Amino acid sequence: MPFDINSSIANASTLPSAFYQSPDWFERSKEAIFAKSWQFVGDVDLVKVPGAVHPFVHLDGCLDEPLVLTRDTNDQVHCLSNVCTHRGMLVAESGGNERFLRCRYHGRRFGLDGCFQSMPEFEGVCNFPTAADNLAKVPFGQWGPWLFASVNPSMSLEEMLKPVVDRLGWMPFNEFRLDASRCRDYVVRAHWALYVDNYLEGFHIPFIHAALNQAIDYDNYLVELLPSGVLQLAHAKSDEGIFDLPTSSPDHGQRISAYYYWLFPNLMLNFYPWGLSINVVRPVGHDRTRVSFIPYVWREELRGEGAGADLDRVEREDEVVVEAVHKGLKSRFYDRGRYSVAREDSVHHFHRLIQSAFE
Ligand code: FES
Ligand SMILES: [Fe+2]
To answer: Is the N or the C terminus of the chain less surrounded, counting Cβ atoms within 10 Å?
Structure first.
């Protein structure tokens, strides 16, 4: 038990400030937490037609794993290592439409499925080629239009997403469209887990988010702990900006303005009546985090209403407190605090998940 987070919240103390402050814990978190997680890649339009090639860096700034998505001539999508099996050059350096992948360093060729095809000047090399000369296949999966990849998954993608699918499966995810004009990245000068801590509790809403507090019913703010995540349910004070829930929804008849899903460690799926804001919390150091807001619109006409109306304002309000907490944790007089049993069970759950990642 590296952090000694008691399983009983009433007896527990929060993560020690060393976890948030030390570059060493940050380095250890890369393999223990992030390499085992599923990361959002984008949607299927990245590789829309056969021959499409899309190189990307998996969790840029943290895992820094060069990968490439391809769609082969049989219309199959692949997620491959983008590192040449000869001497380690990046294979695809830009996106486009190709018949094969060709490393420009010494000309090694791979099919769009990653299989080795040819290599100049390799006559006389024994036991060549073997499977080790193919580009490594990386676990990936699709849910609705969205693609996820993991370099060393600790659970299946289906298992991770099951609570979301069970509750919100009635939504037509394949009709959701990326609104690229409203994608935004925020750089937060704080440890990534402080950003998550803050996201996971509604406790601070009346103190920090005056406008949001007007829209939601704080006394009816519900939290459900999931095996590897948390759902926060915001009910509306009025009938404005609420979901039109079908009878097939387990929440039919309630005035719900937002479903906030967090999936361990760094994925947030915020569902509003207008659609989905995917937030990805990307650590780029122990004291710096890049948070991407990626909106997918379903019902544009509902955009300006309710809890999901002004996400930029809420984000700026959160950023200010999270950065101030990061400074506070440098103090010699603070190490760890206690949890509110009524309002911080989600933060306690997160800290327990972090603890178990290191066991
Ligand atoms: S590194 Fe790719 S062919 Fe040499
Ligand atoms: Fe907040």
So the answer is: C
Q: How far is CA 11 from CA 16, 134, 203, 246, 341, in A?
A: 15, 52, 19, 41, 10
What is the second-level CATH architecture of the domain 157-357? Answer: Alpha-Beta Complex (3.90)
CA distance 113 to 72: 6
Q: Is the CB of 108 under 6 A from ligand 1?
A: yes
Q: How far is the C-alpha of 73 from the C-alpha of 96, rounded, in Å?
A: 14
CA distance 254 to 185: 33
Same fold, 39-149 and 157-357: no
Domain positions in the chain are 39-149, 157-357
Q: Is the CB of 101 under 6 A from ligand 1?
A: no
**Residue whose CA lies nearest to ligand 1 atom number 1:** 87
**Beta carbons of 23 and 359 less than 8 angstroms apart:** no
Distance 133 CA to ligand 1 centre (A): 11
User: Does ligand 1 lie within 6 Å of residue 84's CB atom?
Assistant: yes
Other beta carbons less than 10 A from residue 55's beta carbon: 19
Q: pLDDT tens digits for the chain (359 residues)?
A: 689 999 999 999 999 999 999 999 999 999 999 999 999 999 999 999 999 999 999 999 999 999 999 999 999 999 999 999 999 999 999 999 999 999 999 999 999 999 999 999 999 999 999 999 999 999 999 999 999 999 999 999 999 999 999 999 999 999 999 999 999 999 999 999 999 999 999 999 999 999 989 888 999 999 999 999 999 999 998 898 899 999 999 999 999 999 999 999 999 999 999 999 999 999 999 999 999 999 999 999 998 877 777 888 999 999 999 999 999 999 999 999 999 999 999 999 999 999 999 99
Residue nearest to atom 3 of ligand 1 (CA): 106
Which CATH code is given to the segment(s) 39-149?
Answer: 2.102.10.10
